[in-house]
């Protein structure tokens, strides 16, 4: 009798577990399709380099056998001749596009050589570039199917087979873009924190009814699309916008100020968009502050500054860290705001990722820059988790 009851209870538990799994299955499928698979695609494309090895297999094998330091052996020319004579023009175009990332001239070199192999084979490889060691080294760097070329290029480095890693030809282009993106994200995060702190401190001390009414006014601008808000900032900041018109009417300025297409306009607009992401975590932390600890600190002789630093801040620090992390990570991926309000020197890394995917079709570089953002996000999350635990421990 007891075993029958036990089996019945086990069947009930299994059915309950199956129902629970069925409820979370749509969410798991959504995460798989919209997060896990795209993330795997990005990671794969950042180290994938299949064009040369799939299209020119003989040349790829000869390049893999060459050390890249000594003089190019004649076997490279023989392999190139065999492959170029047989390759289809469409596939050769893909190889030419990949080699063009290394430098200019490869497209015309490959197409003219293939054409001469049909008309004048004896002079097909007379182009001086075929005698240049750097040409073969560039091809060797393109021998996949797995490569570190794009990840190195994303930090302005390239692999030289004689001197090892060295600076690339972009002269700090991408490292400058990455640094600019992080600096702008930090500035926006600090601005949101300073704007949200007094507002949340005021809201936390109000009654529930008044707080909800005030939060409604805070939420109203965020019920419009980000594009609409950015367009509104364009109207406000333009030469004949509201700010310039007020300043001109008051006689403070004699000519309109240039408020658009600069770093300041981008920072202001992004801080406006991201402010709400700082308010809610910070307000939740301030509302959970134990007021008895503040009163105890005051009764024990602690001044306002000491109470703020030693008692109040450790209790709200988890909210500060959560809001700052959310604002910073989301700001790293901003695209539309810098594109509308910033100049060429104010574009962030997402702009260049979009350029690589839509204009130049360089998915490897787009994925490599995305991986940098992904790594930064992971490191920041780990840092935020560690600091939150430390502050929570200090608060106890």
Keywords:
73% helix, MetI-like fold, mainly alpha, two-stranded antiparallel ribbon, 18 helices, extended, 396 residues
Give an account of the 3D structure.
With 396 residues, this protein is mainly α. Helices cover 73% and strands 2% of the residues. Strands 1-2 form a two-stranded antiparallel sheet. A hairpin with a 3-residue loop joins strand 1 and strand 2. Helix 14 (291-299) runs antiparallel to helix 15 (304-332).
Q: What's the CATH architecture name of the largest domain?
A: Orthogonal Bundle
The CATH topology of the largest domain is MetI-like fold
- Note the quaternary state here: single chain
Global geometry = extended
How many individual domains?
Answer: 3
CATH level 1 class label of the largest domain: Mainly Alpha
What share of residues are in beta strands?
A: under 5%
Poorly predicted residue ranges: none
Record field, number of beta strands: 2
Task: State mean pLDDT (0 to 100 scale).
Answer: 86
The termini sit apart by 52 Å
- Look at the helices and sheets and give the structural class: mainly alpha
H/E topology pattern? HHHHHHHHEEHHHHHHHHHH
Number of helices: 18
Helicity range of the residues?
A: over 70%
Q: Give the strand order, joined by hyphens, for the main sheet.
A: 1-2
């Amino acid at each position: 009798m007891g075993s029958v009851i036990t089996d019945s209870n086990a069947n009930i538990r299994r059915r309950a577990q199956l129902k629970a799994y069925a409820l979370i299955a749509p969410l798991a499928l959504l995460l798989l399709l919209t997060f896990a698979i795209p993330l795997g695609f990005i990671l794969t494309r950042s180290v994938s380099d299949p064009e040369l090895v799939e299209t020119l297999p003989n040349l790829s094998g000869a390049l893999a056998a060459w050390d890249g330091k000594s003089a190019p052996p004649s076997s490279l020319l023989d392999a190139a001749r065999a492959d170029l004579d047989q390759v289809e023009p469409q596939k050769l175009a893909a190889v030419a596009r990949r080699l063009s990332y290394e430098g200019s001239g490869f497209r015309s070199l490959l197409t003219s050589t293939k054409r001469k192999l049909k008309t004048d084979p004896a002079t097909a490889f007379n182009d001086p570039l075929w005698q240049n060691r750097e040409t073969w080294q560039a091809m060797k760097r393109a021998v996949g199917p797995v490569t570190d070329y794009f990840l190195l290029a994303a930090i302005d480095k390239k692999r030289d087979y004689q001197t090892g890693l060295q600076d690339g030809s972009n002269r700090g282009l991408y490292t400058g873009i990455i640094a600019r993106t992080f600096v702008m994200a930090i500035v926006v995060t600090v601005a949101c924190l300073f704007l949200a702190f007094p507002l949340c401190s005021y809201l936390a001390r109000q009654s529930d009814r008044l707080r909800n009414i005030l939060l409604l006014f805070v939420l109203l601008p965020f019920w419009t699309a980000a594009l609409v808000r950015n367009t509104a900032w364009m109207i406000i900041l333009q030469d004949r916008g509201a700010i310039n018109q007020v300043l001109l009417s008051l006689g403070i300025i004699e000519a309109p100020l240039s408020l658009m297409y600069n770093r300041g306009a981008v920072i202001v607009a992004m801080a406006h968009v991201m402010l709400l992401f700082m308010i809610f975590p910070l307000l939740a932390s301030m509302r959970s502050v134990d007021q008895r600890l503040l009163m105890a600190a005051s009764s024990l002789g602690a001044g306002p500054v000491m109470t703020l630093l030693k008692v109040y801040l450790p209790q709200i620090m988890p909210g500060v860290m959560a809001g700052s992390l959310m604002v910073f990570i989301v700001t790293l991926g901003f695209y539309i705001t810098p594109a509308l309000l910033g100049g060429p020197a104010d574009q962030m890394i997402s702009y260049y990722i979009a350029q690589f995917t839509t204009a130049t079709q360089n998915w490897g570089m787009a994925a490599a820059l995305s991986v940098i953002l992904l790594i930064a996000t992971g490191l920041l999350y780990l840092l935020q988790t560690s600091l939150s635990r430390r502050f929570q421990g200090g608060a106890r």
